[in-house]
Amino acid sequence: QVQLVESGGGLVQPGGSLRLSCAASGSIFSNNVMGWYRQAPGKERELVATMTHGGSTNYAGSMKGRFTISRDNAKNMVYLQMNSLKAEDTAVYYCNYWSIMTRTEYWGQGTQVTVSS
User: Fold this and answer.
1) What are the Cα distances from residue 40, in Å, to 26, 58, 71, 73, 77?
2) Residue 89, Cβ density class (10 Å: 0-12 exposed, 13-18 middle, ≥19 buried)
3) What is the pLDDT of residues 96-117, one digit of tens each?
4) Comparing C-alpha atoms, which of 46, 40, 44, 7 is closest to residue 114?
5) Is residue 36 a contact partner of residue 20, using CB atoms and an 8 Å limit?
6) How far apart are CA 64 and CA 6, in angstroms?
7) pLDDT tens for residues 70-98?
8) Three-state DSSP class for 65?
9) Which CA distances in Å does 63 have to 1, 2, 44, 49, 101?
């Protein structure tokens, strides 16, 4: 089992920045992918960005250039730096862990990000 705990969400004005953090604990294996997804009201959950243990990244097109994913493997942490935030970025952001070896997936409880003036 893997537990994921997100933090760092909140209310921010358009054009502002937020940094989300996700702490993973439990049965962590090195061959994994960690990342962020989001779900806006009335919409399906969508990819934001993922990062492999080795550092390869994958971003949704609309987030490229504004969002940056990073991770600290020693601490089992993954981060999402979000800049130039827009109202349409308002959503619940979920941390995701995918174990390539066991082919299992885990989700955090989500953290609300609201972009509004």
Assistant:
1) 29, 20, 24, 29, 24
2) buried
3) 999 998 899 999 999 999 999 9
4) 40
5) yes
6) 21
7) 999 999 999 999 999 999 999 999 999 99
8) coil
9) 30, 27, 16, 8, 28
